[in-house]
Amino acid sequence: MAFIDFSKREIQCKIVYYGPGRGGKTTNLLCIHKAMNKSVRGEMVSINTKGDRTLFFDFLPLSLGSIRNMNIKIQLYTVPGQTMYNASRKLVLKGVDGIVFVADSLRVRKDNNIEALANMEENLKGEHLDITQIPLVLQYNKRDLSEGDIPILSVEEMQQDLNGRLRVPAFPGSAINGNGVFETLREISKITVKQVHEKLLKR
Ligand SMILES: Nc1nc2c(ncn2[C@@H]2O[C@H](COP(=O)(O)OP(=O)(O)OP(=O)(O)O)[C@@H](O)[C@H]2O)c(=O)[nH]1
Ligand SMILES: [Mg+2]
């Protein structure tokens, strides 16, 4: 939940990385953690992980400098993508201010992407949030696989599947190489902070 601390001149926002299992949400956070200076980021915490599968969530706090004299603190979370962990996804979504939906470019994951987006819309509704109103950015991850023999979806097809109605910013990426990770983070931070700032100052 976003809040503003006037004594510290600080705004805090919560951004959740959502998407199908094995899409690359945790890899995004690991990449951000690795690239950012210690003065900017806190420690990354992964709660309950089995191998590389998230069973509850990952958490990474960032201090993104200041906008209009307010210090911006962002908390990044990931949800577990596996279908059976919906209760955890609902918990992690509580108080969300902005979302990165990480879709998997592998062709075999086409339906998983669509299902995960529908599941997200449903869970947002449960929090009285509208998918068309919340700050949202899509990332089409694993574009590096286009160089191999494994069939992947074209960006156009992913746009049709996932972004036809929403028309939100979408970035191709390869979280494993760091490509697109910071473009995605920059955009979601910008639009989330803008909305949070407007909402909190209106109250
Ligand atoms: N080739 C390739 N592999 C990737 C990329 N991003 C992630 N992976 C791999 O995909 C697997 C799953 O990545 P994770 O980041 O753990 O996926 P997740 O979305 O957190 O998965 P859950 O925690 O189960 O929801 C790992 O083996 C990653 O190394 C990418 O851009 N390209
Ligand atoms: Mg994960």
How would you describe this protein?
It is a single chain. This protein is of the alpha/beta class and 203 residues long. It has one domain: P-loop containing nucleotide triphosphate hydrolases (Rossmann fold, 3-Layer(aba) Sandwich), CATH 3.40.50.300. The protein is 33% helix and 29% strand. Strands 1, 2, 3, 4, 5, 6, 7 and 8 form an 8-stranded mixed β-sheet that branches. The model has no long low-confidence stretch (mean pLDDT 93). The site of magnesium ion has 4 residues, from helix 1. The site of guanosine-5'-triphosphate (GTP) has 22 residues, from helix 1 and strand 4.
Please summarize what this structure is:
The protein is α/β, with parallel strands linked by helices and 203 residues long.
Report the span from N to C terminus. Answer: 15 Å
Given helix and strand content, the structural type is alpha/beta
Q: Approximately how much beta-strand content do the residues carry?
A: 25-35%
Q: Note the main sheet.
A: 8 strands, mixed
Assembly status = single chain
Structure characteristics:
203 residues, alpha/beta, Rossmann fold, eight-stranded mixed sheet, binds guanosine-5'-triphosphate, binds magnesium ion
Topology, please?
Elements: E1 3-5, E2 10-18, H1 25-35, E3 45-50, E4 53-67, E5 70-78, H2 86-93, E6 98-104, H3 110-126, E7 136-141, H4 155-163, E8 170-172, H5 181-202
Parallel strand pairs: 2-5, 2-6, 6-7, 7-8
Antiparallel strand pairs: 1-2, 3-4, 4-5
The structure holds guanosine-5'-triphosphate and magnesium ion.
